[in-house]
Amino acid sequence: MIFPLFLTLQASWLTVCQATQHYPATWGHYDLCKSQGYTEEGLTWYYMACQPEAADMTKYLKVTLDPPNITCGDPPETYCTLENPYMCNNECDAATDELAHPPELMFDIVGRNPTTFWQSTSWKKYPKPLAVNITLSWNKTIELTDDIVITFESGRPEQMVLEKSLDYGRSWQPYQFYATDCLDAFTMEPKTMKDITQHTLLDIICTEEYSRGYVWKNDKTVRFEIRDRFALFAGPKLHNMASLYGQLDTTKNLRDFFTITDLRIRLLRPATGATMVDENNLSRYYYAISDIKVHGRCKCNLHANSCIYDKEKLTCECEHNTTGPDCGRCKRNFQARAWSAGSYLPIPKGTANICMANYAGPVTRVCDSELLRCQNGGVCVNYVRCQCPPAYTGLLCEKPRCEKEPGGCGGSDSGQASLHPPSLILLLLLGGVFLTEICWITVL
Ligand SMILES: [Ca+2]
C-alpha cells in the first residue's frame, strides 16, 4: 500500500536540516503560496510565487534497461578483475539473493556494506559493442537542483552519453558526453566545466574528466555538474540565488535546460584499462553501478509548494486557482485572464500570477479617477479597490464603518450618502458604458 508522501512542508525535520545544510539560506524560500492578512474589507489572502522543496528524486522514478536481459546472473557468470585477469571471484547469479545484482540496487540505501550494485553481463560478444541504456522516468516534469552523480562499482566506462527528455521519452537530447578520448569517440574537443561561461552554459560538451585514466580504487563517480552551472550566476557558494532566479525567470532556454521528465544513461564502451581488449578473458569487461543521485523538485510553475506521490505518480498540489500535474492551466471558472507561470521576480517573494475568477457581469474594474470615484476621501488603487479612510468602508468607501459596529451608528441618520446595492450596480454599469463611449470617442 502506498501512502501519499508530502515532499515539502510535510518533510521531516531531518530532511529540513539536510536541506538547510545543502543549500544556503539565500536560495530564496518560495515556500508559501499565500498568506492571510487584514485589509479595509476584512480578512484577505495575499498570494506569492511558490515551489516545492528539493528532494531526492530517485525515490520516485521507474528504471528501464535496454536490452532488457542485460543484467547479469541468468545464466550465472563469474567475473575477473580488470587489474588481475587471474583473480576471478566475482559471481553473479540472479537466482540467489546474495549474488544477484538487479537494477534497484542502484537506488538503495547509500552506505550499505558491502556495497550493493547493479551489474551487466560481460562483454561476451566482443567486438560487437556492449551497449546498455539505463532510462530513469518520472512521468512528471522535474527541475534539477544538484549534480547528477553516478557511482560505478566497475571501472568507469570509456564511452558514455547522458541524455535527457522533456517529453516523457518521445525525444531525447544529449546533456553531456563522456569519453577517454572525446575526439576519437564523438569527434568533439574535450572540455571541462572550467570552459563553460554564462554565455556558453547551454553548450553540450564532451569531457574526459570522468573517464580518462584507469583509477580503479579511487574515483568511481561520473558527474553532471548542475551546481557549477548555477554558480555561474549565483557565485561559487551559491550565495546569490536571486541572480540565478532572475535569469531563470527571463530565459526560457535556461529554465528548460535544468528541466527533465526522463534521464537516459547510454553506456557505450566499458572500462578496458588497456589499449587492447583481452579477447581471451572477456569476463573482465562489464558495467556495474552502485548508486545514482538525482536531486530536484517537482516543476509546478511556481504555483505549488508541495508535490504528492500517490499511485506511483508525482502531482503538484496546485494553488492560485491553477490545476494540472504541473499547475499548467487555470481551473474551470478561473479563466478571466490567460494562465501564466508564477515569477521569481520581484525578489524575494515573487509574483503569483493567480488565475482570476470569471465574473458574471460586465464590470471587472472597481474604480477610476473619473466616473467611478471612491467616496468620502477614498483613494482608488490600481482600479481594483478603494483604499478607504478609517471611518469608512464598502466597495467605494460609501459606508460609515460604524454601521458594522455593535449597535450600528446609534440609529441616527448619519447623513452620509450610502449607496444601496442596486444603485451601486447601476452606477458601475453606467460607468462601464460611459467609459466605453469615451474610449470610442478617443479612437474616432
Ligand atoms: Ca547501491
TrEMBL record:
Gene that encodes it = ntng1a
Protein name per its UniProtKB record: Netrin-G1 isoform X14
**EGF-like domain mapped to chain residues:** 363-398
Alphabetical list of InterPro entries matching this protein: EGF, Laminin/Netrin_ECM, Laminin_N, LE_dom
Tell me the superkingdom of the source: Eukaryota
Q: What PROSITE patterns does the record tag this protein with?
A: EGF_1, EGF_3, LAMININ_NTER
Tell me the keywords, alphabetical order: Disulfide bond, EGF-like domain, Laminin EGF-like domain, Signal
Where in the sequence is the signal peptide annotated? 1-19
Ranges for domain Laminin N-terminal: 46-297
Q: List the disulfide bonds.
A: 388-397
